[in-house]
Amino acid sequence: MMRYLVSGLLAASALATPALAQTVAITGVRLIDGRGGAPVEDATIVITEGRIVAAGKVAVPGGAERRDYHGRSVIPGLISDHSHVGQVSGTETGAQNYTRANIVAQLAQFRRYGVTTVTALGNNAPSFAAIRADAHAGGIAGADLFGVMQGIGVPNGAPPQSMLKVGPDQLFRPSTADEARKAVAMMAAEKTDLVKLWLDDFGGSVPAKMSPAIYNAVIAEAHARGLRVAAHIHDLADAEAIVAAGADIIAHGVRDKPVPPSFVATLKAKGVWYIATLQLDEATFAWADRAPWTLTPFARAALSPALARQIDDPAWRAKILTDPKTADARTSLAMNLRNLKTLYDAGVKIGFGTDSGASAVRVPGIAEHRELALMVQAGLPPVQALQVATANAAGLLALRDRGIIAPGLRADLLVLDGNPARSIGDADKVVETWVAGRPTTF
Q1: CB 3.0–4.6 Å: which of 93, 107, 151, 347 could bond 196 by disulfide?
Q2: Mean pLDDT for all residues in the chain
Q3: pLDDT band with cut points at 50, 70 and 90 for residue 203
Q4: What are phi and psi for residue 24, nearest 5 degrees?
Q5: Which of 274, 269, 279 lies closest to 259 in space, CA to CA?
Q6: Phi-psi region of 383 (alpha: psi -120 to 50; beta: other; left: phi over 0)
Q7: Across residues 152-163, what is the average pLDDT?
Q8: What is the DSSP string of 127-147?
């Protein structure tokens, strides 16, 4: 954990000054602008005061600082619509980890791996509001931060307290519709960006499940206050029920059975966003499998010392691989991949998220790169996977100042060796990440 914190502090010291006022021109790059079109070769990106001034086949302004990145690719910074912060330290999960220092270190790691905007989708303490404000103002040397405040679960049910170990100020568990409305009102007062609810029984492992009376009250109160609702689901029946009730975002993929045409049509007609979080299930077994990507320096550099020791422990790996939940995760991932392709091909709005930071093995930054690879495995062309992770992800958050590389937008950029439009694995060849015009090297 020490290396993780120190690297975050070093990044903070390097980026403590405001965005430079002079104009910078990045030249000779392969421009993949996030819109899903063909790359523009030998392009130039011009940046002034943290904003993109021009991009494409454009001239270098006189007096600009010129950076020749010939042969490299530039894409928009990745945007996570579903992550968590302050829940994990090393291999431990719990409220004791919800500290400013830990969250800042995690945002720095997200940034090093090219994730320039993070949505912490629930289980946040009231201190989140100040950290988010500092991130928006550029006072944190990491990813920008949005999120759901506490979120709404169920007494004796989801999300399992035995798994999360959150504090009493990090989650509401209303037992009546009136309590649910009051919880939404409190989140609105805290300026939550979204409302999150958990509609799932975690494979029958929790005794209670959210009733229609509660989730209908949550959705109605949120909408009355101009807030959108993201719903944690696993099964198709729950997804159908919560969409019928008016949820705006499905926060995990349907993983128990194929999505039928009727559900696909409903998602399209209502404009509901769908976040698959493919990496959630992959992370359950991939580190124990010693999948080739887990052995790369790129992946290993993201691990805290405690997590590295855990995944290198043969006894831990054997325990994971013989756990029945691991077999379930493999099955869930296969169904999630299939359903994502069905929904994408049908034109459903697809967001980008991983549930990174919710458990130790869902590693910030690495999870997002794996999500890109898994989307391609599902059948999305690489350039469309990149569009989901940038322009689409910004669209889900209703952020109009980022997600593509275009004049007037934030200079949130990811500089890569290779060509990720041809091979998504090249997205792992991170050279630099720019946040609001300020670069840091990997």
Answers
A1: 151
A2: 94
A3: confident
A4: -120, 135
A5: 274
A6: alpha
A7: 93
A8: THHHHHHHHHTT-SSS-EEEE
Task: Count Cβ atoms below 10 Å from residue 118 Cβ, excluding itself.
Answer: 31
* Closest to 281 (Cα-Cα) out of 362, 352, 201: 362
Q: Classify the phi-psi angles of 235: left when phi > 0, otherwise alpha if psi is within -120 to 50, otherwise beta.
A: beta
Element (H, E) at 197: strand 195-198
* pLDDT at res. 204: 84
> For the structural domain made of 2-75+404-441, what CATH number should be given?
2.30.40.10
Report which of 46, 14, 138, 32 is spatially closest to residue 440, judged by C-alpha positions.
Answer: 14
pLDDT of residue 21: 52
Domain positions in the chain? 2-75+404-441, 77-396
Q: Give the CATH class of 77-396.
A: alpha beta
Q: Per the confidence metrics, is the pTM higher than 0.85?
A: yes
The answer on pLDDT for 69 being more than 60 is yes
Minimum mean pLDDT range among 2-6, 55-59, 156-160, 296-300? 2-6
| Alpha-carbon dihedral sign for residues 11, 17, 138, 167 | positive
The first and second tokens of residue 6, run together, are: 């120190």
Q: Do domains 2-75+404-441 and 77-396 have the same CATH topology?
A: no
Number of other CB atoms surrounding residue 323 within 10 Å: 14
Helix residue spans in 366-438 (DSSP H): 366-378, 382-387, 393-396
Report the candidate in 310, 267, 307, 273 with the shortest Cα–Cα distance to residue 394.
273
